[in-house]
Here is the input.
Amino acid sequence: MSVTAPDLRRRRRLGAVAAASLLALTVSGCSGLGRTAVGPVTYHTDREAVVQVNSPSVRGCHRLAPAGARELENGTLVDIILYPTRDCSGQGTAYVATRFSDVAPESGPPWRSYTFVH
Here is the structure.
């Protein structure tokens, strides 16, 4: 049995449609895995340790080291809000835009947690 040119084109078109549909299903299935803030969050503790967290989740409250942070650099693609408490609440917050940094005043408490603005 021979395959004619129109039949071959139809099969190729159906194959392309099937591949595109499969790709769309794959992408939509992965979107529920949770988004991350692409890039590092780097901070310095009172004990002069440097901590780097790469691509953390954009959801939830993120605690910093128990000693807190005096300086934080936001190398991610998402803005951050810093808190002086461990549970991302209270007064005295700081807003750190993407690719910027913040230094806590020496007279005040260190930063103890952060959330992403999304």
